[in-house]
Write a structure and sequence with these properties.
By secondary structure, this protein is of the alpha/beta class. 46% of the residues lie in helices and 16% in strands. It has helices at 3-11, 18-29, 35-48, 52-63, 92-101, 120-124, 136-146, 159-171, 177-189, 211-227, 249-260, 266-282, 289-301, 304-315, 321-324, 351-363, 405-415; strands spanning 79-83, 106-110, 148-152, 195-202, 231-238, 246-248, 334-339, 344-349, 377-380, 387-388, 393-399, 416-419, 429-433. The strands form 4 sheets. A 4-stranded mixed β-sheet has the order 1-4-5-13, sandwiched between helices. A 4-stranded antiparallel β-sheet has the order 6-9-11-7. A 3-stranded antiparallel β-sheet has the order 10-8-12. The chain binds uracil.
């Protein structure tokens, strides 16, 4: 087969056969296709799309690029959660130890930051020493022992997604329904799951900007799951303003620890409970959402969920002293405060602008090899719908390097719209797709 002729075919609106897709994913995973050619193919897919048969073949080829794990010997129900990506979306970090403490086994394979959105792996790596690269035997050992494990794609775990994910991030090809759905579902289907809860984000800070697109993405992923015998529940949730107050890698770990201690901002806590309760119901350990929520509250109040997080961080070589004293997590040297120019009601706190601003401070990548700064970030104080006085703090930017500071300030200042109100506060969860 010839890769350039496949690029031509897709670019000109043609369709690729199963064999061609299988071949191109396998060749790229084996480093036999250069990034520049694959980036061109990704752009063709971004612009032309994949039909349902092509998407099935693409997802299967990614799934089979590495080991497909089998946890049938683990008695607990294997349920995972994945988000399509947002700003300040750190839900997985407190959620996994909470549901694992309730009797669910969570074999989570996550990703890094994509575009303006943060990634669970980058956040976890803000914990000094934490290793996200685990081979399948170690991944299984930690899951069996603690009922949870959080790792990244590797040379044996969905290597195709490991490579494509980084390439999409650096080639402007992230917000594509076939590329997002194949990326997420290949990872999740490689985990040997009984069920999956998806958080499909919609709004300025999400890759899906409106409900029609979000519904389409959710339905496609639910369909891929059911064709592989995995039950998938998707919640379509709001991402028009950042989730919680913290946007940045280390600061999101601090906020996640708050949730594990029964504190934390209301929207983050609420979404963690809602997604977790869905996981407990899907796994059959709770009869309904209310019972699931009560179980989650119990393991938070007893300290069990926090202790589980500490045990797993230690098992993955992370320094647990930063969990006991989050002030020890990386902190930026400088700060810049953004204040309100007038009194009124916060009408908008645009998640995209705030997320791009944080990426410009050094929390995101512009090329595949960029090294991120875990310490930088923005604390968002003003929430949509709240009344504020002129001069009140809207957000605080924390930075080490001022190379892109002016850009980050401009973006973050522009993210806030203050009006005379009242502001429409959108629901946290719009709808479910099953
Ligand atoms: N999460 C993923 O794993 N992949 C995407 O493409 C987007 C979000």
């Amino acid at each position: 087969m010839n890769f350039i002729s496949l690029i031509h075919a897709k670019r000109d609106g043609g369709r690729l056969t199963d064999d061609e897709i299988q071949w191109l994913i396998a060749e790229y995973s084996a480093d036999r296709i250069p990034d520049y050619q694959m980036a061109s193919m990704l752009m063709a897919v971004f612009l032309i799309g994949l039909d349902p048969d092509e998407l099935t073949a693409w997802t299967d080829a990614m799934l089979r690029s590495g080991d497909v794990l089998d946890f049938s010997h683990v008695a607990a129900p294997k349920i995972d959660k994945h988000s399509t990506g947002g700003v300040g979306d750190k839900v997985s970090i407190p959620l996994v130890p909470i549901v694992a403490s309730c009797g669910i086994a969570v074999p989570m394979i996550s990703g890094r930051g994509l575009g303006h959105t943060g990634g669970t792996l980058d956040k976890l790596e803000a914990i000094p020493g934490f290793r996200t690269a685990l081979d399948p035997p170690e991944f299984s050992k930690i899951l069996e022992r603690y009922g949870m494990v959080m790792a990244g794609q590797s040379e044996t775990l969905v290597p195709a997604d490991r490579r494509l994910y980084a390439l999409r991030d650096a080639s402007g090809t992230v917000p594509s329904i076939p590329l997002i759905s194949s990326s997420i579902m290949s990872k999740k289907l490689a985990e040997g799951l009984d069920g999956l809860v998806l958080d499909v984000k919609v709004g300025s800070g999400a890759f899906m900007k409106d409900l029609v697109q979000a519904r389409q993405l959710a339905k496609i992923m639910v369909g891929i799951g059911s064709s592989h015998g995995t039950t998938v529940t998707a919640l379509i949730t709001n991402m028009s303003q950042p989730l919680g107050r913290e946007v940045g890698n280390a600061s999101e770990i601090r906020e996640s620890i708050d949730v594990l201690h029964g504190r934390g901002p209301p929207d983050l806590v609420e979404l963690t409970f809602r997604l977790g309760a869905e996981m407990l119901v899907l796994g059959g350990v709770a009869q309904d959402l209310a019972a699931g929520r009560a179980q989650m509250e119990t393991v938070i109040a007893s300290g069990e969920a926090f202790e589980k997080f500490k045990e797993v961080v230690a098992a993955q070589d992370g320094d647990t002293s930063v969990l006991d004293d989050p002030r020890l997590l990386p902190r930026a040297r400088n700060q810049h405060i953004i204040t309100a120019e007038r009194s009124g009601v916060v009408i908008e706190a645009n998640a995209l602008d705030i997320g791009v601003g944080v990426a410009r401070l050094g929390a995101g990548r512009e090329t595949k090899d960029d090294v991120i700064d875990p310490a930088v970030g923005t604390t968002v104080t003003a929430r949509v719908g709240s009344e504020i006085e002129a001069g009140a703090v809207l957000a605080t930017l924390r930075y080490n390097d001022d190379a892109n500071l002016a850009d980050a300030i401009r973006l973050t200042e522009g993210a806030f719209v203050i009006g005379d109100g009242p502001a429409e506060t959108p629901p946290l969860v719009y709808e479910e797709v099953r």
